[in-house]
Amino acid sequence: MSREKGNYAEDLASSYLEESGFIVVVRNFYSRFGELDIIAEKEDVLHFVEVKSAEDYEKAIQNITPKKLSRIIKTAQVYMKKNAYDGDYSFDALIVTPQAIELLENITL
Fold it and tell me: Which site in 9, 36, 55, 62 is 20 to 30 Å from 98, CA atoms measured?
């Protein structure tokens, strides 16, 4: 996917999260392990959100591999340490397709 399409999907995802009561804390947080697309907060829980877009749900969700999830977790740990955060958190995926936007919470379970 091109960076332009990725940015568009992340813009849609941020709007969706805000409309759903989340506060977007930061977008595109980088560490040596990888990138977190969106970090948002809702009801005192920090959500590390991986945005995936594709023509259909199955193609998008298949792009969240075990290796990708491991990088997300390591990058989130860097963020939490850097910001001295010790509260509740969740690893989520936000799937963007032409038909819908769907938030999947706690994808590590």
Answer: 36
Residues in the chain: 109
Measured distance CA(17)–CA(4) in Å, rounded:
20
Which residues contact residue 100 at a Cβ distance below 8 angstroms, ignoring those fewer than 6 apart? 57
Domain extent at residue 33:
3-104
Given a contact cutoff of 8 angstroms between Cβ atoms, the answer to whether 102 and 58 are in contact is no
Domain count, the chain: 1
Q: Tell me, yes or no, if the pTM score tops 0.90.
A: yes
Asked if the structure places residue 109 within a domain, the reply is: no
Low-confidence stretches of the chain (pLDDT < 50) are none
Is residue 106 within 8 Å of 62, Cβ to Cβ? no
Q: What is the CATH number of the domain that holds 65?
A: 3.40.1350.10
The secondary structure of residue 20, as a DSSP letter, is: T
